[in-house]
């Protein structure tokens, strides 16, 4: 009954929460406090910080205290960073604080916007997580906003790859934690393993009320619960990666029978003929066997061991072998580095060295590439991003591309989308598409276009490709023409910060896979900006126009 009532009230309030006009009176009230805060001396401002923090912890984020907190944080940001929040950023911060997805266009300053709801919640004593999509953004955003949080008396933690368990626990104990969605979710799973039979939503108050025998268990947990989260690039995390399985696995004892079974499955698959024994559905990424194919598989495996006697298991093994052969493409879905198969994240274009495919698929791809077979793994805990983020008491996010998935945000997460107006009119010009009849013609036109642009001005050029293979193919063509350039894909993802930092320089050409570098700032030289800014070439359209916008 309680759940039904909560759903009903959320549905009724949706159009109200998603209206930007709901937050305009709050904006005006915050701006009215400008005069008061500008007049304060440094000592008086420190006293006001202490007073507002005390009141927020005592009363919570009431209407009046929200106004006071935002005005205070805005003044602190102005004094510490030289950046006072624009009206659009205040509206974005208010929409996030009220549990919405704030849709803010590229260049509107989402990093600074986040300080308003994040610092307000932290001042009220709520453990707060700021979630980004990669380590580079996590460290960059935390470093940029650190002076604001320090002046407000708030501690700041940063969780990235490579930290020990003790270091992670220390960082999660801070008032505000900047982290990636991957690190956060996997640390949550590690806590779930520690909790064992207890509820996955980490309702730690229940454990703390139990006898002292559970104190050692609590001491080993990293997270302080899932209270308040602001997710940057929310559509990528909540939608594109929603059903991505996050799995913590342990080593299992490799069995000779299992290794032999994978080798046999790959051998059988290599003897089957497309369209005669099976059909490939590339869009659905599925293999379908014909009746002739199933009979042929049975004939080929009659002399194999008992693991092959069951029809369902037999068909599944060969299907995995064909999937590895025909549906997983080197340098698009994975790369081979130093004899190891490393997964490429389809959504970010980045290497995922700690992930492996399940149900023998990883081992079958290793056979395909002539690599040494890795040991099979046993699943200890798993969850999807969709289920993980729905555990938060307060969830919100920011993105520049939410329109296309507005209904999904509501249906899955009960998060309305608030379209935040821009601070200034956009200068971006979007040109038309050019349709080519062959791949050769397309690449030839792109190279010609780059040469023409370079002859006309010093504008930097960013070329977005759909796969690692495409990026390296184009790189080869540019090398042949003597055009200097940088490449950002899964092979160079560790140098992302350096490559992106150079992408806005005069006459610079950068090739990047579709989602590599998402969320990063490309700083333009003044003379480049005067000539028209960055020129972007997209080498192919995605199924989703939202990805093209990114």
Automatic annotation (TrEMBL):
One of its GO terms (cellular component) is cell envelope Sec protein transport complex. One of its GO terms (molecular function) is helicase activity. Keywords: ATP-binding, Cell membrane, Helicase, Hydrolase, Membrane, Nucleotide-binding, Protein transport, Translocase, Translocation, Transport. The keyword Transit peptide does not apply. InterPro entries: Helicase_ATP-bd, P-loop_NTPase, SecA, SecA_DEAD, SecA_motor_DEAD, SecA_preprotein_X-link_dom, SecA_SF2_C, SecA_X-link_sf. Pfam families: P-loop_SecA, SecA_DEAD, SecA_PP_bind. GO terms for biological process: intracellular protein transport; protein import; protein targeting; protein transport by the Sec complex. It comes from the Bacteria. Residues 5-550 form the SecA family profile domain. Residues 91-311 form the Helicase ATP-binding domain. This is Protein export cytoplasm protein secA ATPase RNA helicase. It comes from Vibrio ishigakensis.
């Amino acid at each position: 009954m309680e759940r039904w009532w909560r759903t009903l009230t959320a549905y009724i309030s949706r159009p109200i929460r998603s209206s930007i006009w709901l937050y305009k009176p709050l904006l005006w009230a915050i701006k009215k406090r400008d005069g008061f805060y500008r007049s304060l001396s440094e000592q008086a401002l420190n006293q006001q910080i202490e007073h507002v923090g005390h009141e927020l912890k005592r009363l919570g984020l009431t209407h009046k205290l929200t106004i006071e907190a935002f005005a205070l944080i805005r003044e602190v940001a102005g004094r510490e960073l030289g950046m006072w929040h624009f009206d659009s950023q205040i509206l974005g911060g208010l929409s996030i604080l009220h549990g919405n997805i704030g849709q803010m266009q590229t260049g509107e300053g989402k990093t600074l916007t986040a300080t308003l709801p994040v610092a307000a919640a932290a001042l009220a004593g709520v453990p707060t997580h700021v979630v980004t999509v990669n380590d580079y953004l996590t460290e960059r955003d935390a470093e940029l906003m650190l002076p604001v949080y320090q002046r407000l008396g708030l501690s700041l933690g940063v969780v990235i790859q490579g930290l020990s368990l003790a270091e992670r626990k220390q960082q999660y104990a801070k008032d505000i934690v900047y982290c990636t969605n991957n690190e956060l979710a996997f640390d949550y799973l590690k806590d779930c393993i520690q909790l064992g039979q207890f509820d996955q939503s980490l309702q730690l108050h229940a454990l703390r009320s139990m006898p002292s025998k559970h104190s050692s268990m609590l001491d080993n947990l990293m997270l302080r619960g899932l209270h308040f989260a602001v997710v940057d690039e929310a559509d990528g995390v909540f939608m594109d990666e929603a059903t991505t399985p996050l799995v913590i696995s342990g080593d299992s004892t490799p069995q000779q029978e299992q290794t032999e079974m994978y080798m046999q499955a790959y051998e059988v698959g290599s003897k089957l003929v497309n369209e005669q024994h099976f059909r490939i559905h590339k869009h659905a990424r599925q293999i379908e066997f014909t009746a002739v194919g199933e009979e042929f598989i049975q004939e080929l495996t009659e002399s194999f061991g008992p693991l092959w006697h069951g029809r369902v298991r037999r068909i599944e093994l060969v299907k995995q072998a064909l999937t590895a052969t025909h549906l997983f493409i080197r340098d698009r879905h994975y790369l081979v580095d130093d004899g190891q198969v490393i997964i490429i994240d389809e959504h970010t274009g980045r290497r995922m060295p700690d992930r492996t495919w399940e149900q023998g698929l990883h081992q079958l791809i290793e056979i395909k590439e002539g690599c040494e077979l890795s040991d099979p793994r046993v699943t200890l805990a798993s969850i999807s991003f969709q289920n993980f983020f729905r555990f938060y008491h307060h969830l919100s996010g920011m993105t520049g591309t939410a329109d296309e998935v507005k209904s999904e945000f509501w249906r899955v997460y009960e998060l309305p989308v608030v379209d935040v107006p821009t601070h200034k009119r956009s200068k971006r010009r979007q040109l038309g598409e050019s349709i080519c009849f062959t791949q050769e013609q397309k690449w030839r036109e792109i190279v010609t276009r780059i040469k023409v642009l370079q002859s006309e001005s010093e504008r930097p050029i960013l070329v977005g490709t759909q796969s690692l293979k495409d990026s390296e193919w184009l790189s080869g063509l540019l090398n042949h023409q003597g055009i200097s350039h940088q490449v950002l894909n899964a092979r160079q993802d560790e140098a992302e910060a350096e490559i992106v930092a150079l992408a806005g320089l005069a006459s610079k050409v950068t090739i990047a896979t579709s989602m590599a570098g998402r969320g990063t700032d490309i700083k333009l030289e003044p003379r480049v900006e005067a000539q028209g800014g960055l020129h972007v070439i997209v080498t192919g359209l995605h199924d989703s126009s939202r990805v093209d916008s990114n």
